[in-house]
Amino acid sequence: MRGRLMLVGLVTVVTAGGLVGPVSAAPAPPRVVIGKGTTTCLLEAGANCRGVVHKWKLVFHGNLKGINFSRARLDGANLRGAILDAAKLRGVVLRRANLSGASLKSADLGPVAHRRSPRSTPACNPKCQGADLAGADLSNAQLGLAILTNANMNGANMTKADLGEAKVGGATMNGANLTRLTGERAYLDGVSLKQALMEGVSLPFASIRNADLSGADLTSADLTAAQLTSSKLVGANLSSVDFSDANLLYADLTNANLTNAKFVDTNLTSAKLTGANLTGVTWSGVTCPDGSYTSGPPCPI
């Protein structure tokens, strides 16, 4: 019929000169459904994907803000650059997953209680199962304010990740790569960072009490005003580390390499320095292991 246009899946562009012609509408983004059997979910912001199992196949780089992946099995997932802010990730398994450049601000990767009988001890006593991120790529990931309590991050790549004010207490990060990671005011009490690569890490005002950093490489790290009470740094490479205003009460630095380290207004009360390399250390306003005070000469060992 003259004067009438039929539009089916097309958009007609009209200009001042008249009709130009049909233009195809932009295709809708593909729907990604994961899982199997009766437990499936559509990936989108706020989706409930609790308990879903989708190993070694998941590829998604979009917006998953607020998604619930609690207890999900997502081994090998490729979530590079994805937005997972405020996501619920308690007990999730993301072994060898790619989360490089992902944003997990305020995400909850905290522990979940093991199933128990009504008469057993409280859910988180003595230890809960945290998220499993062993071998995962978290380089450049934004983890500010995230909860990673008791998480397994052994061998994870966290190069240049941001852990600002994150709660990582009790996590295991043995052999992990934290090179140039930042984590101002992060909570790292009780973490295990044995043999971790931590060159250039920045953890000012962080709480790292009762942690095990034996054999870790913290060359040129910033630990100003950090709390390291009772932590183990046995055999660690602490060369050029800035310990200004840090608290190392009862810390064990036996056989540590402290070459050119900076101790300014540092508390070393009852710390162990046996066998440590103290070449080039800056001593200013330091409380020594024996309780004496020094500004210049090294503390007596």
Structure characterization notes:
The protein has strands at 10-15, 18-24, 33-36, 39-42, 262-264, 282-284, 286-287, 293-294. The protein is mostly loops and 301 residues long. Strand 3 (33-36) and strand 4 form a beta hairpin. The strands form four sheets. The protein has a two-stranded antiparallel sheet. The N and C termini lie far apart (100 Å). The model is unreliable at 1-14 and 116-127 (pLDDT under 50).
Main sheet specs: 2 strands, antiparallel
Q: Runs with pLDDT <50, length 5+?
A: 1-14, 116-127
Strand order of the largest sheet: 1-2
Give the N-terminus to C-terminus distance in angstroms: 100 Å
Using the CA coordinates, give the radius of gyration. Answer: 26 Å
Number of DSSP helical runs = 0
- Indicate the proportion of strand residues: 5-15%
- Tally of extended strands? 8
- The class by helix and strand makeup works out as little secondary structure
What integer is the average pLDDT?
A: 89
Give the SSE string.
EEEEEEEE
Overall form: elongated
What's the arrangement of secondary structure elements?
Elements: E1 10-15, E2 18-24, E3 33-36, E4 39-42, E5 262-264, E6 282-284, E7 286-287, E8 293-294
Parallel strand pairs: 5-6
Antiparallel strand pairs: 1-2, 3-4, 7-8
Provide key terms for this protein.
two-stranded antiparallel ribbon; disordered N terminus; 301 residues; 0% helix; 8 strands; little secondary structure
Gist of the model:
The protein is low in regular secondary structure and 301 residues long. 0% of the residues lie in helices and 10% in strands.
